[in-house]
Amino acid sequence: MSRIDAQKAQLQKARDFLDRILNSEENEIQRAAAIQAFEVGFELAWKYLKNLVEENGTLVASPKSVFREAAKQGLLESPEVWFDFLIARNNTVHTYIEDLANEVYKFIRISFLDELDKLIRIEI
User: Fold this and answer.
1) FRET pair for 92, CA 20 to 30 Å: which of 41, 63, 78, 84?
2) What total of structural domains would you count in the chain?
3) DSSP state at residue 25
4) DSSP string of 66-99?
5) pLDDT 10s digits, 88-119
6) Is this model's pTM higher than 0.85 or not?
7) CATH code for the domain of 89
């Protein structure tokens, strides 16, 4: 199994884990678990994309540069949504503010799983 295939499998596991969390009874602990699973999924996703982009011959370093280049290569429809995920991840990693956590939780529920599904469906 190649490194990219292994990353894709890890990304699928993280996506499925987050889905199970989001489909469990909502409470404070479930929301915290969802945010933590989002953080892990986000890290796996951008590093997976980084490797896909680099397989196509472009060296990139930061998440933003990865998202921009992935969009140029047709791997992402919109880098802007990934920029929003990056902001959400940065906000949740560095502090805990309940209102912010609730906003991030809603954002995760609305769009993150769909975006992970798109990444996982990329043919390599």
Assistant:
1) 78
2) 1
3) P
4) HHHHHHHTTS-S-HHHHHHHHHHHHHHHH---HH
5) 999 888 767 888 888 999 999 999 999 999 99
6) yes
7) 1.20.120.330
